[in-house]
Amino acid sequence: MRVAQVSPLYERVPPLAYGGTERVVGWLTDGLVERxxxxxxxxxxxxxTAARLVPGSACAVRLIENSADAQAFHFAMxxxxxxxxxxxxxxxxxxxxxxxxxxxxxxxPSVTTLHxxxxxxxxxxxxxxxxxxxxxxxxxxxxxxxxxxxxxATIGHGLPERLYRFRAEAGGHVAFLGRIAPAKRPDLAxxxxxxxxxxxxxxxxxxxxxxxxxxxxxxxxxxxxxVRFRGELDDAGKSDxxxxxxxxxxxxxxxxxxxxxxxxxxACGTPVIAFGNGSVTEIIEDGVxxxxxxxxxxxxxxxxxxxxxxxxxxxxxxxxxxxxxxxVDAYLGVYEELRNARRAGESRGTREADMPAxxxxxxxxx
Length: 366
Fold this sequence. Notes:
Residues 343-366 are annotated as: Disordered. Residues 18-127 form the Glycosyltransferase subfamily 4-like N-terminal domain. Strand 4, helix 3 and strand 5 form a beta-alpha-beta unit. It is built from 14 helices and 13 strands. The protein has two domains: 2-158 and 324-350, Rossmann fold (3-Layer(aba) Sandwich), CATH 3.40.50.2000; 174-320, Glycogen Phosphorylase B (Rossmann fold, 3-Layer(aba) Sandwich). By secondary structure, it is of the alpha/beta class.
């Protein structure tokens, strides 16, 4: 199958350090190539891929964001996708609703995976205007604000099986991995560790937009004796951090659409202690691959009993549910469904065009 993957341009594919959407795009793209599909990746020019790369910008736009118009790069890239759409059997957008008007002009079918939250004011009206655009959610929870949208599947993310090393024995620390942002609640992770009497190792990105939050609320917490801040880590560093942890702390304060770090932890065999917001209950099985809690007090208690959980079982659940192979299989099913629907529609249109006008009216759906 000839597939176009269309990535956001803010980060390269895959990112060298922190990054969610672009990492998933990279794994999916390379997974399709490994299956023998003809894949074209529209992404920043510094991306690394097994597919054919069409650069939408010379480098990740975040590197030049202060002096460039990020949307200009995206609009130019999306217009190029339209211009070349006859070359593809399917176009897969990862650019949120930005690609919707362009998707209507393609000569091939398309699908858009939504990677962000859907409960933002204004989105419901927008999705009603583009109700014809086929969508994939990354969790069922993500769909909740717009359940009537044109959803074709829910497909969770998948990691390469050998990206992270399974560790049968836990170390003494708990881990926090992600961004230093109010919705991620690193302050609660630090409090939970302190009250449980265990050290915490934190690997996180500090975005410019979160700099004030970090300086006003978090920086002083990093001076506490039980806290070790490790900055941003690559995959080898994350494997070490997560694999050596007795648990990942995930005390989120927002409707997380997926939470890639949770399956990264499971790949290492590390259970997850998480607040039950967003997709958490779809990824973590309470009492099996972690504990789902409602308060700091419950999280502290969970840290003290997390050793009762099987790290082997955590890894097994990762292998069963969250690999690239499983993700590729699911997307190929959606691609085939949309391509077959387009062919059926074109065939029906051809037959009806050959009919006399009264017969066309009779054949039209009621």
